[in-house]
Design a protein that fits this description.
Blueprint (H helix, E strand, L loop, with lengths): L1 H17 L7 E6 L3 E6 L4 E7 L4 E6 L5 E8 L6 E9 L4 E7 L6 E7 L2 E6 L4 E6 L4 E7 L5 E6 L5 E6 L4 E7 L6 E7 L4 E6 L5 E6 L4 E6 L4 E7 L5 E6 L5 E6 L4 E6 L5 E6 L4 E5 L6 E6 L4 E6 L5 E5 L5 E7 L4
Antiparallel strand pairs: 1-2, 1-28, 2-3, 4-5, 5-6, 6-7, 8-9, 9-10, 10-11, 12-13, 13-14, 14-15, 16-17, 17-18, 18-19, 20-21, 21-22, 22-23, 24-25, 25-26, 26-27
C-alpha cells in the first residue's frame, strides 16, 4: 500500500510540475472547436486550454487582466444557435461561469470597458451590457440593423461602434445628455462590412467590406464615408491598425492573404500569404509583430511587421479565430 501511495503521490507531483501558470503578458486564442488557448508569447507555447461554450467566435479581457470572456456563437441551425458567454478565470485557467443570455441569440462581438462587458446579439439586432460584479445584464440598445456583428467602445466610454454586416452599415452610437441617453447614426459602408478598427488618433473608422473587396474610411467627426480603397480581396474578414497608426492589416479569408496598407497614402505595402483561411488579427502594444489566425490550418501565424516575414507558428487548437492580449500586470 505504501508503494502505491508513493506512486500516486509522484503522479500528482509530476502533473503539478507540468502545469504552467498563466503568463503576463499573455496571448489568448479562441478555437471554434470549443476552447480558449492561453499562450506564452515569450515562448510561443500553449500553457493551457480551457473549455468554452459551443462554437466560440470572439474573446476579450477584463480591465484588470483577471477574466476572459468568450462569445459562444453556436451553429447556424436554429436549434443550435448560441446563447451563452463564458467567463474564464485566467489564474485558475477554468470556466467560472457560463452566462445564459435567455432570448438573446448568436452573441458575437465583445468589448470590455469601465468594468463591464459589451456584446452584440446578431439575431436580435442589438447590443447589450453585462455587469460581472452584479452578475446581471443591465442595459440593452437595439440597432435595427441586420447582423450586428463586431463592437468597439471608445476610450472615454462615450461612443460605441458596431459593424452591421447584412445591412452594409456602421453604427456610431454616442452618449447623450437628453432623455434618450444614446443617439445612433447609421453610416453606409459598402457591402458586408465586418472587421473594422478605429485609428489610434480617434479620427477615422476603417471598415473592410467582405462583399466588395474594399476598405471604407469613415470620418468620425462628420459621420460620413470620405474615401474607399479597392484592395481586391475576395472576402475580407478582419482589419487592424498598428499601434502607431502607420499601417493597416486586412485578412482575406478565402485566399489566406494579409494585405498591409499604408494608412497615410492608402497604398498597398505588402500582400503576404499566411496560410489557409486567414481570419482574426491581433497586434500587441509594442507593434513589432502581428498574430494571424489561420483557421483551416489550426494554427496562428506570427508576422514580423519590420520584415513582413512569417517568423513562426503556434499550434493553438481546432479552428482558431478571435484573439485578445492580456497585458503585463501592474
Amino acid at each position: 500500500m505504501k508503494l502505491i501511495a508513493a506512486f500516486l503521490l509522484s503522479l500528482v507531483v509530476a502533473a503539478s510540475a507540468l502545469a504552467a501558470e498563466t503568463p503576463y503578458p499573455a496571448l489568448l486564442v479562441l478555437n471554434k472547436g470549443g476552447s480558449l488557448a492561453i499562450v506564452n508569447p515569450a515562448t510561443n507555447k500553449v500553457v493551457a486550454r480551457v473549455r468554452t461554450g459551443p462554437v466560440p467566435h470572439e474573446v476579450t479581457v477584463s480591465d484588470d487582466g483577471r477574466l476572459a470572456f468568450t462569445s459562444n456563437y453556436g451553429a447556424f441551425e436554429p436549434e443550435k444557435e448560441g446563447r451563452t458567454i463564458s467567463m474564464i478565470g485566467l489564474a485558475s485557467q477554468k470556466e467560472l461561469r457560463r452566462l445564459d443570455l435567455g432570448p438573446l441569440r448568436r452573441p458575437h462581438g465583445l468589448a470590455f470597458a469601465n468594468g463591464e462587458l459589451y456584446f452584440t446579439a446578431e439575431l436580435n439586432k442589438l447590443i447589450a451590457r453585462y455587469d460581472p460584479k452584479a452578475d446581471k445584464l443591465d442595459w440593452y440598445l437595439g440597432t435595427g440593423q441586420n447582423r450586428t456583428h463586431m463592437i468597439e467602445v471608445s476610450k472615454d466610454h462615450n461612443k460605441i461602434y458596431t459593424s452591421n454586416v447584412d445591412s452594409g452599415t456602421i453604427s456610431i452610437i454616442e452618449r447623450s445628455s437628453g432623455p434618450e441617453r444614446w443617439i445612433q447614426t447609421v453610416v453606409p459602408a459598402g457591402k458586408g462590412p465586418e472587421g473594422f478598427d478605429i485609428s489610434p488618433d480617434g479620427q477615422q473608422l476603417w471598415a473592410a467590406g467582405s462583399g466588395d473587396g474594399q476598405v471604407h474610411i469613415i470620418d468620425l467627426a462628420s459621420h460620413k464615408e470620405t474615401d474607399s480603397i479597392d484592395i481586391h480581396t475576395k472576402r475580407s474578414n478582419r482589419l487592424r491598425f498598428t499601434p502607431d497608426g502607420k499601417l493597416v492589416l486586412v485578412s482575406d479569408l478565402p485566399t489566406g492573404d494579409v494585405i498591409v496598407l499604408d494608412a497615410a497614402s492608402h497604398a498597398e505595402r505588402k500582400r503576404i500569404h499566411v496560410g489557409s483561411s486567414a481570419a482574426g488579427i491581433l497586434i500587441p502594444p509594442d507593434g513589432q509583430r502581428a498574430y494571424i489566425a489561420c483557421t483551416a490550418d489550426n494554427n496562428v501565424a506570427i508576422l514580423n511587421l519590420q520584415t513582413f516575414e512569417i517568423e513562426g507558428r503556434i499550434q493553438t487548437g481546432k479552428q482558431p479565430d478571435g484573439m485578445a492580449w492580456v497585458p503585463k500586470r501592474q
